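Minutes, methods subgroup
Present: GH (chair), OT, SY

1. OT presented the first of two proteins processed in the latest run. Sequence and structure tokens recorded below as shown on screen.
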Amino acid sequence: MRFFENETTELKSIYTDDIKKTAVAFANTDGGRIYIGVGDDGEVIGIADCDDLILRIVNSCRNAIKPDITMFIKAGKETIDGKDIVAVDVSKGTALPYYIGERGLKPGGVYVRVGSSTVAATDVHIRNMIKEADGDGYCNVRCLETDLTFFAAESEFAKEGLKFGDAQKVSLGIMNADKQYTNLALLLSEQCKHTIKLAVFEGTTKTVFRDRKEFEGSLFKQLDDVYSYLMILNKVHAVINGIKRTDNYDYPPVALREALLNALIHRDYSFSGSIFVNIYDDRLEILSLGGLVKHLDIEAIKQGFSQSRNERLANIFYKLGKVEAYGTGIPRIMDLYGEYAKNPEFAITPSSFAIIFPNANYGDNGRKVGSNKKVSSEDGERVLDFVRRRGTAVRQDIIDALGFKSTHAYNILSALETQGKIKVTRKGKAKEYSLPS
């Protein structure tokens, strides 16, 4: 009997480590059979101790190949022309791509079958295999990077008293069931490939740059770093009316944070471009990739309807208390601008989403006459007095005791926090406030 190599047949005269590559290639392609003890010319040579070799092959593939390939491999002894050989059957796997663990999920670790040859897969081929196995959801897809660090994420979870071990990572979708990192893990790691680019322009056009920066790292770090820098640029203008002084930011701080959160949580990460923050004398723009998800329009979003593109990412930000509830960001922004002459605008295309904030201290964009009733000093004093008497309070306590609506209570607490009159003593879904020491 003569053997011939082809797309599904590989011949090996003796056992070598290359057999693992061939097993990976068959599992990633259409399956196949490896004959050990058969020369390249098809002549049967034989194996002295088949039982020992079968055990070595199975153990080697189980330990070296990721994900676990054991259930797709079957090795056995066959006798051809009076000589014993080992036949290794490899079925096409269901968790593509398979790879040599020590080499990682990249070319040099992933192999496919091309004709009668075993060859290294390209980056494009690897991504296509992942997409085929995991589907289109970016956050759920296995990550090509395997050496990730989570210093910022660990810090954020620790602040909320939450664990961040392997069990939690699997539950949150940071790891899949096989303990492999997903793209969600990449977004939260220091190795995140996506960035935020910020530019400050002179005047109202892009003719002259004043400053430009790029923020990178974990999405948690990007959020904090960009917001901190925006607050440095966010000028405060004092307005004196009689004996009363009112401090007006160029942009409501809470509105900026909500818009940054919206951009980070809802952008389409399958595109490699950055989020852009452009600052002019008269406006501030935040632009992210990815238009509105199907069946949503801007009017629905203004009313509080929400459909997350990155549900698991949104869930993590929610668990950490960075968003209070789904769908509240845009309505809150609009509410914060309710007392201004000019409201934020939205520019939406099928592949992008932009929110444009008017500078409240530029031209006629400022507060409407008589609009200071939204967050009056009297309401602020009532809240301060309530917190002073209670020692600590959450927003729901204030709503119940003082009869404020939820958004109004939020605005008051945000204003008092910005002014340094109260401080946050516990973050999370039930944020707790107290007076400064």
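2. SY then presented the second protein from the same run.
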Amino acid sequence: MWNRITHFLNKQFFHFLCYFLPPAPSSLPKDPKLILVFSTTGIGDSLFDSAAIKSLKQGYPHATLVVAAHHRRQSVARHNPFIDQVFPLSKSPISQIQFLLRFRKQRPDLIVALHVNEEAVPLGYLLNRHLFFGAIERCQSFSFLLSHPIETKYETHIVEETLKVAIAAGGATVNRGMVYHVAPEDLTVLLKHHPGLKKPWIVFQTGGGRTLSWRNWPIESYIQAIQWLSAHYHGHQIILTGGHDNRSTGYAIEAATPWVINLVEKTTLEETAALLTGASMLVTTDTGVMHLGFAIGCPTLALLHYQSPASMYGPLDYSPGHEILQLATPEKNSPLQKNPMSQIAFEHVRAAMTRILSL
């Protein structure tokens, strides 16, 4: 309730402020010194934004490009070589005041909002109400603060949405591939923390967060797949990954298949990325780690719910051996299933894993 009241009052305040200081679009700067990009949501969204950031840096190679990233998920930005500085941002008023003070003396010549939490949008308006680009759909109820609102809802892939915004802001036309560069020290740290790891290995991401748990694969399906792999590819280590929301799933899988290496809650995002660089295959549902696998080029079997269509969330390039198994869309009046992801047939999973591992 309190969050809704705060949101309402904040929105009314900026509507009032815009009456006196409306967003007034200016022409693109020819030689901007400082570009600020907001990319403040999840891991997957940050990876979607990475291609747009590459576009902006190549369009303005001499500008300093600063990315405001979610304070808990800034690793993606820190592994993008097209970013000059990363500023961690949270929802707290203190963090936002510090952010405004950071840019008080040198205001950004150009601001671009990609995937953002709504509270980030007023910050962009306050810093530059003349050159503030963003997608209307992503800025949601604060899109009225954009000086250059961009319509993106008809783009086919999520990456193309943010690329459209970047190009409108003067970015270069670039390859659509997502960007994440694994640092050599990340692999060193991984092997130091987990010295028992030995190639070849296969990674199972044990699901995403609780909020979108309908996208997750059932525990029984993980167990069935791991048992089959262990019988037919017994030279591979099987490794489980995931965050704190996946703890119980990891323990349940480990109890049924005790030979797995359970790294749920035991690796950072950087270490998980390093793990994927050496993996023979990643098996995952729609999670940030799935997009990390696509970005790195790890052969990935993605098990997708029909509400996460492959045309929007799948890989941009199937050449490394990526495979998609999409849950069929139910008929209009069919009853809701408790766990519809169990309907992805195991024989299709088995065939896809075989194809990937035969590469």
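Chair's summary of item 2: DSSP finds 14 helices and twelve strands in the chain.
Next meeting: continue with the remaining queue.
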